[in-house]
Specification:
mainly alpha
C-alpha cells in the first residue's frame, strides 16, 4: 500500500522540519521583498543597525540569557509533546552548557567581530 507524501515525511521525521522551514520562509519573505523593491529602505535599516550597536548587543545577550534560563522548561515541554522518555529529557537538559558555549563563541566571532579586532591589534 502506498503512503502519501506527508506520511512518508512524517515517518522520516522531516514533517516538523518542513513546518519550521515554512514558518521561517514566511517570516523572512517580507524582508526579502522590501530589499528587492525598495533598496533605500533596506539601506536605512542597515544604517540604523550600525548607528545603534549597544541596544542590539544588549538584545542579543538578553536573548542568549533568556535561552539559557528557559532551556529546561522548553526541553520539558518539547519532550512531553514528542513523547520522549525521562532519560532523554534529562539528557537534552544537560546539553545547555554545550549549546550556550557554542552560541557565545558564535556571538564573539561573528557579532562582536573579536577575531578581526585581534588580527588588527596584532
Amino acid at each position: 500500500m502506498m503512503r502519501s507524501f506527508v506520511d512518508r515525511l512524517r515517518f522520516a521525521g522531516m514533517h516538523n522540519l518542513l513546518q519550521i522551514a515554512g514558518v521561517m520562509l514566511i517570516t523572512i519573505l517580507p524582508v526579502i521583498l522590501i530589499c528587492l523593491y525598495d533598496p533605500a529602505f533596506f539601506n536605512c535599516i542597515t544604517q540604523n543597525i550600525t548607528l545603534h550597536p549597544m541596544p542590539l548587543r544588549l538584545f542579543r545577550w538578553g536573548m542568549i540569557l533568556f535561552f539559557m534560563f528557559f532551556w529546561p522548561y522548553i526541553v520539558r515541554k518539547f519532550g512531553k509533546h514528542c513523547d520522549a522518555s525521562e532519560g532523554q529529557i534529562i539528557g537534552w537538559q544537560a546539553e545547555i552548557f554545550r549549546i550556550a558555549m557554542w552560541v557565545i563563541i558564535f556571538e564573539f566571532l561573528a557579532c562582536e567581530n573579536i577575531l578581526s579586532k585581534l588580527i588588527y591589534l596584532w
